[in-house]
């Protein structure tokens, strides 16, 4: 009798669970990944061959090669990016990754309202993840870029993943002067995530991006208070962005399925750094440095899969 019960329990577990899938999720603010062409209606003249940055084909190809090197070495299943000008730029990065190591990435980059024409984007491994609905830009008050929302399936486990790729308003006019825009982004994001969490079946949430605030500042405090089910994974280093002698932890990954203790790790390969140990930037003001980015990439290793909760609620519109 005992053996029969154990066998029945084993079959139940087998039928009601799904295989776990390891995932490497990463984010990288790539610092002005512009092409060399003037875009009508966008303030991108400085990133042209005749512009202030003298952004010619040679510099563009160096930038693409640098970003592809990071993507190839990092080898993330999902790589979210900030400051990508267009789907064509994203495709150039993906093509260069393929040339380097044969990995096949597909990309999503949608036009946002950013006046300079730079947007959040996503590269994903086609054998790991597949979008199940059209991606969209979620509008955010006082933030032209909005939030890139991608819904898709993790192919091995069957889980639905909801990705929110953020690049909140920078501090270009000062931290206090721009704080309200970042708080508005936190509230908008919490509204959408809460809707999904209440209505979707076993939602798996990933919130990531350059939020331009530290964990103790109002926008991040507000976000974590509104979404207590999300885990802000602790950064393994001092920061992702170096400004005026200080490391700032501006880049984040939150999830509701990876254990909270899982560290958000910095990708600090020597080629990304100056001799002083700070990010090797593409530009310092108008001066061309020829580096990778003013931010360091971050990544999170975790698992997805297992028991799935069911609900009869209807998904609300975003």
From TrEMBL:
It comes from Candidatus Merdimorpha stercoravium. Gene3D superfamilies: Endonuclease/exonuclease/phosphatase. Residues 25-300 form the Endonuclease/exonuclease/phosphatase domain. One of its GO terms (molecular function) is catalytic activity. Residues 1-20 form the signal peptide. InterPro entries: Endo/exonu/phosph_ase_sf, Endo/exonuclease/phosphatase. The keyword Signal applies. Keywords: Signal. This is Endonuclease/exonuclease/phosphatase domain-containing protein. The lineage of its organism: Bacteria, Pseudomonadati, Bacteroidota, Flavobacteriia, Flavobacteriales. The keyword ATP-binding does not apply.
């Amino acid at each position: 009798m005992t053996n029969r019960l154990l066998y029945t329990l084993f079959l139940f577990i087998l039928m009601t669970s799904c295989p776990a899938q390891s995932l490497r999720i990463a984010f990288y603010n790539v610092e002005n990944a512009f092409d060399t062409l003037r875009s009508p209606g966008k303030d991108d003249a400085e990133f042209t061959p005749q512009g202030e940055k003298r952004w010619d084909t040679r510099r563009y190809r160096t930038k693409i090669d640098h970003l592809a090197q990071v993507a190839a070495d990092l080898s993330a299943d999902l790589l979210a990016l900030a400051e990508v000008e267009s789907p064509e730029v994203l495709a150039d990065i993906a093509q260069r990754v393929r040339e380097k190591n044969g990995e096949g990435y597909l990309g999503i980059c949608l036009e946002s309202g950013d006046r300079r024409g730079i947007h959040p984007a996503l590269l994903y491994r086609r054998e790991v993840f597949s979008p199940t609905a059209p991606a969209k830009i979620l509008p955010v008050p006082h933030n032209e870029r909005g939030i890139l929302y991608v819904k898709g399936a993790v192919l091995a486990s069957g889980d639905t993943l909801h990705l929110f790729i953020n690049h909140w308003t920078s501090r270009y006019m000062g931290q206090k002067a721009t704080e309200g825009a970042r708080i508005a982004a936190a509230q908008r994001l919490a509204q959408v995530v809460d809707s999904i969490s209440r209505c979707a079946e076993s939602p798996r949430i990933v919130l990531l991006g350059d939020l331009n605030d530290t964990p103790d500042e109002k926008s991040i405090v507000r976000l974590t208070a509104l979404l207590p089910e999300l885990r802000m994974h602790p950064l393994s280093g001092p920061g992702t962005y170096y400004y005026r002698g200080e490391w700032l932890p501006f880049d984040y990954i939150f999830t509701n399925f990876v254990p909270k203790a899982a560290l958000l790790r910095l990708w600090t390969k020597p080629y990304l750094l100056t001799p002083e140990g700070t990010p090797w930037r593409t530009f310092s003001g108008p001066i061309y440095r020829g580096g990778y980015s003013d931010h360091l990439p971050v990544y999170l290793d975790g698992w997805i899969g297992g028991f799935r909760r069911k609900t009869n609620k209807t998904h609300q519109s975003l």
